[in-house]
Amino acid sequence: MRYLPILITLFFLSSALSIPILAQTQSPATAASITTSTDKSSYTLGDTIVISGQVHAIVPGNQLTIEILDPNNSLVNVAQIDVSQDGKYTDSISAVGTLWKANGVYTVKVLYASNVTQQTRFTFQSTPTITSNVFQLKDPNSQQTFNVNYTISGGTLKTMTIDARSLSVIASVNSTSDGTITLQLPRVLIDAKTNSGQDDAFIILIDGAEVKPQSESSDNTFRNITVQFLKGDQDIEIIGTQIVPEFGPIAALVLAIAIVSIIAVSAKTGLRLMPKY
Fold first, then answer.
1. Residue 79 buriedness (CB in 10 A; 0-12 / 13-18 / 19+)
2. pTM across the whole model
3. Which of 106, 167, 248, 272 is least enclosed by beta carbons within 10 angstroms?
4. What is the DSSP letter of 126?
5. Phi, psi (deg, nearest 5) at residue 275
């Protein structure tokens, strides 16, 4: 029994030493990894930004927070969304409003379960690019070429064609966002007149649907129209009452020479163009 106090003392010492040892063997909670991306690398004002990704370890009862910061690190959008059972998530955000004003690189930050974060970036332009140029439109019938001045925002002008049967000019655009196009149409190319000879309004179709122009103006030489289009629109058709004549200047010159030749031959041979009474 004389060893009992020693055994009890050794037991308490071993118990005290085992507590921190056991605590050190407990591994900390593993942070869940997460992915995130945007559907495009660049956007302009009015575009829809689609953010998606996946959480690889779901924590029940936790929502995912999405923050978008501008180049000055100012918050322009924040949203909280649920994560699906398979860990996937997606959210659509419209780049509209007074906060979307800085051009440059924006950052998307995703936060989940308090300490799990991920981020991605995209470029943003608050003002659509405006392009001004001249399109040389050639009439396949008369071989005449017409210079059509244009200004476009929200896309690019791909081509312009003449449809003589419908008395129209068709401008095909690649509309990457909502925008406008202004066309300076020569009257010798296309015009719209009433029966009394006064200027009449053009009929304007976008992909077959009639629209009203944003503005119109004219002088003795040109008709100017501005048309608004939406992202994804393709063909803008301007229909008038008269289109480029079938015979251009060269053909008209040839016709005039032919008439003069006939008159000269008639004078020499005595051939009469009109019957004598």
1. middle
2. 0.55
3. 272
4. S
5. -65, 145
User: Which DSSP category does 199 fall into?
Assistant: B
The span from the CA of 53 to the CA of 118, in Å, is 10
Instruction: Specify the pairing of strand 42-44 against strand 116-125.
Output: parallel
Q: Tens digit of pLDDT per residue, the chain (277 long)?
A: 555 455 545 544 554 444 343 333 333 334 458 999 999 999 988 889 999 999 998 888 899 999 999 999 999 999 999 999 999 999 999 998 899 999 999 999 999 987 789 999 999 988 777 899 999 999 988 899 999 999 999 899 999 999 999 999 999 999 988 899 999 999 999 999 999 999 999 999 999 999 999 999 999 999 999 999 998 999 999 999 999 875 444 444 544 565 556 566 555 555 444 444 4
Of 2.40.50.140, 3.40.50.10490, 2.60.40.1930, 3.40.50.11720, the CATH number of 34-125 is 2.60.40.1930
Domain ranges of the chain: 34-125, 130-249
Measured between its terminal Cα atoms, the distance across the chain in Å is 164
Closest CA to 131 of 169, 181, 174, 184: 181
